[in-house]
Amino acid sequence: MIVEFPPVETADPETGLLAFGGDLTVGSLELAYRSGIFPWPTENQPILWFAPPKRAIIEFSEFKVPRRLERSLKKSLFTFRVNLNFAEVIKNCAILTNRKNQNGTWITDEMISAYIEFHQAGFAQSFEVLNGNDELVGGLYGVLINKYFAGESMFYKETNASKFALIQTVQYLEMLEISWMDVQILNPFLATFGTKEISRDFFMKKLNQALSEPA
């Protein structure tokens, strides 16, 4: 178990790489997220830990759903569930991420096993989308500690299923009196929903405030 990370201010100013090595035990992962750090493993390499200079977040007060998407989802037969099958969600995220090779990321077998244990410990959460036949067709998973939530990855097997998952997850988190979501790295998909980047210093202030509030 990792007992201490370097200060986030010492991360590489361009890539955000802070440290490498260690493990993905429950204690190490909890310490990382509480410290504003996340793992980004790659196959056959030491675990890489990041604290980027810019952090992508979704402020729920600024969250926006494109009108065309909203109309389309109203016609869908999707239903939303929470923690129905965490293992299947992360495995499906791994398949999609690995196929697309998004930014070189890779949800490794080690990471899958570690986050299943993190889920069993009560930290990692899954959000599922079922179609009209009760088949798992989309979802996302993330980490929830007190009033802090970090979205990790999502997948879809039917059009708009991952978008439905994101929208419903935001609504679910709002019911828990959570006001924002850490999505780590900005991408075009997230930008369509009003995601923005903030400085690491501002992110750390928001993180510490969220962690100080009881679940």
What's the quick description here?
This protein has seven helices and ten strands. It has 215 residues and is α+β, with helices and mostly antiparallel strands. The protein folds into two domains: 8-53, Leucyl/phenylalanyl-tRNA-protein transferase, N-terminal domain (Alpha-Beta Plaits); 55-212, 3-Layer(aba) Sandwich (Aminopeptidase).
Number of domains: 2
Label the CATH architecture of the largest domain: 3-Layer(aba) Sandwich
Tally of alpha and pi helices: 7
Strand content: 25-35%
Percent of residues in helices: 25-40%
Descriptive overview:
This protein is an alpha+beta fold and 215 residues long. It has 2 domains: 8-53, 2-Layer Sandwich (Alpha-Beta Plaits), CATH 3.30.70; 55-212, Aminopeptidase (3-Layer(aba) Sandwich). Helices cover 35% and strands 25% of the residues. The chain has helices spanning 26-34, 67-74, 86-100, 109-120, 161-175, 188-191, 200-212, and strands at residues 17-20, 38-39, 48-50, 54-59, 79-82, 124-130, 136-145, 148-156, 180-184, 196-199. The longest helix is centred in the middle third of the chain and has 15 residues, at 86-100. The chain is globular, with a radius of gyration of 17 Å. The relative contact order is 0.18.
